[in-house]
Amino acid sequence: MPTLFHTRCEALRFPFLARKRHLFSIRTVYKSIKIDIMIYMEPLLIYKALSNETRRQILLWLKNPKEFFDERKYLQQGISFQIGVCVGDIQAKVGLAQSVISSYLLTMQQAGLLESERIGKWTYYRRNEKTIQEFADYIQKEL
């Protein structure tokens, strides 16, 4: 997913946003652009996200999290897998560094394959079935 400023040259096109005192404005504009971009499915971002075996494996695990993760500790906290699966649990299952898993999850979220929800200091991820279905329909019609 593109960010607001890819290069210094692009930042110069928006000098009123590039100043430190307008940092809040940059975040506000970026959030509004991000929301607008995420309304539409972007097949190239999805292809990129699915090109990695670990990301595909995570997507499979999130399809049926009860089969792959222990729900008891979620239920003890008063939440269920409908909220999603905690990043820490995904990281423990994959066995890679937390920063790598966070990067993978962000890539899938930017592609629209995942949705996240933050509760306290924890972030939970779940599949975005609507986008996955749109992509499946796109593949069937276009390829």
Query: Into how many domains do the coordinates divide?
Result: 1
CATH arch. level architecture: Orthogonal Bundle
Oligomer: single chain
Annotation, overall tally of beta strands: 3
CATH level-four homologous superfamily name: Winged helix-like DNA-binding domain superfamily/Winged helix DNA-binding domain
Mean pLDDT: 80
Major sheet: 3 strands, antiparallel
Overall, the morphology is: globular
- Rg, Cα atoms, Å: 17 Å
GO molecular function: DNA binding; DNA-binding transcription factor activity
Protein name: HTH arsR-type domain-containing protein
InterPro entries: ArsR-like_HTH, HTH_ArsR_DNA-bd_dom, HTH_MetalResp_TranReg, WH-like_DNA-bd_sf, WH_DNA-bd_sf
Domain HTH arsR-type: 35-143
Descriptive terms for the model:
143 residues, mainly alpha, Arc Repressor Mutant, subunit A, three-stranded antiparallel β-sheet, 10 helices, 62% helix, 10% strand, HTH arsR-type domain-containing protein, transcription regulation, DNA-binding
Task: Tell me about this structure.
The radius of gyration is 17 Å and the shape is globular. 17% of the residues are buried. The chain is mostly helical and 143 residues long. A hairpin with a 2-residue loop joins strand 2 and strand 3 (122-127). Helix 4 packs antiparallel against helix 9 and helix 8 packs across helix 9 (98-110). The chain is 62% helix and 10% strand. The model is unreliable at 1-38 (pLDDT under 50). It has one domain (42-142): Arc Repressor Mutant, subunit A (Orthogonal Bundle), CATH 1.10.10. The chain is built from ten helices and three strands; from the N terminus they run H-H-H-H-H-H-H-E-H-H-E-E-H. It has helices spanning 8-13, 15-18, 23-38, 43-50, 53-63, 65-68, 72-76, 87-94, 98-110, 129-142; strands at 85-86, 114-119, 122-127.
